[in-house]
Amino acid sequence: MTPPPRSAARAPRSPRTADGSARPGAVATALAGWFVPGAGHALQGQAQKAAVFALVLILMFAIGLGLGGRLFAFQTADPLTFLVAAAEWGALGPRAIGALTGLGRGDVVAVTYEYGNAFLIASGLLNVLVILDAVDLASGRKPQ
């Protein structure tokens, strides 16, 4: 009995714009998306998706700060604090702006403190998923 024929391995194709020029690679796309939510999709020619991601993720981060959420610093002594900080840094641009402007000190006695933290954490983690989607587009693993 002969084995079934193997399908030819599909090489990742290089994404191109409508005019035939090459789009930025996966690393540039990931870095852009990390600094500004949605920028990775903008670089890949998906402006509407980029605008929606930017609006939603930045708004989520702003709501988290508005609800009195805290921007956590990396602390290796407490694993949960470390994970929360890592999640917040998933959206580098908003996180850095919040820290530089003095926002995100956190109001522990506020009723909305935990909700604010949840918004900050969720926006960072969602941005990581958005970055991964943009990287898939840039590498050709996902069709335009």
Q: Please, could you describe this protein's structure?
A:
With 144 residues, the protein is an all-alpha fold. It has a domain at 49-139. It contains six helices and no strands. The chain has helices at 26-35, 39-43, 47-66, 79-88, 92-100, 113-139. Helix 3 runs antiparallel to helix 6. The chain is elongated, with a radius of gyration of 19 Å.
What secondary-structure arrangement, pairings included, does this model have?
Layout: H1 26-35, H2 39-43, H3 47-66, H4 79-88, H5 92-100, H6 113-139
Defining traits:
about 140 residues; 6 helices; about 0% strand
Mean pLDDT: 88
How many DSSP-defined strands? Answer: 0
Tell me the strand percentage band: under 5%
* H and E order: HHHHHH
SS-based class = mainly alpha
Which radius of gyration do the C-alpha atoms yield? 19 Å
* Tally of helical runs: 6
Q: What oligomeric arrangement do these chains adopt?
A: single chain
Inertia-based shape = elongated
- Percent in helix: 55-70%
Characterize the biggest β-sheet.
none
Low-confidence stretches: 8-12
Termini distance?
Answer: 40 Å
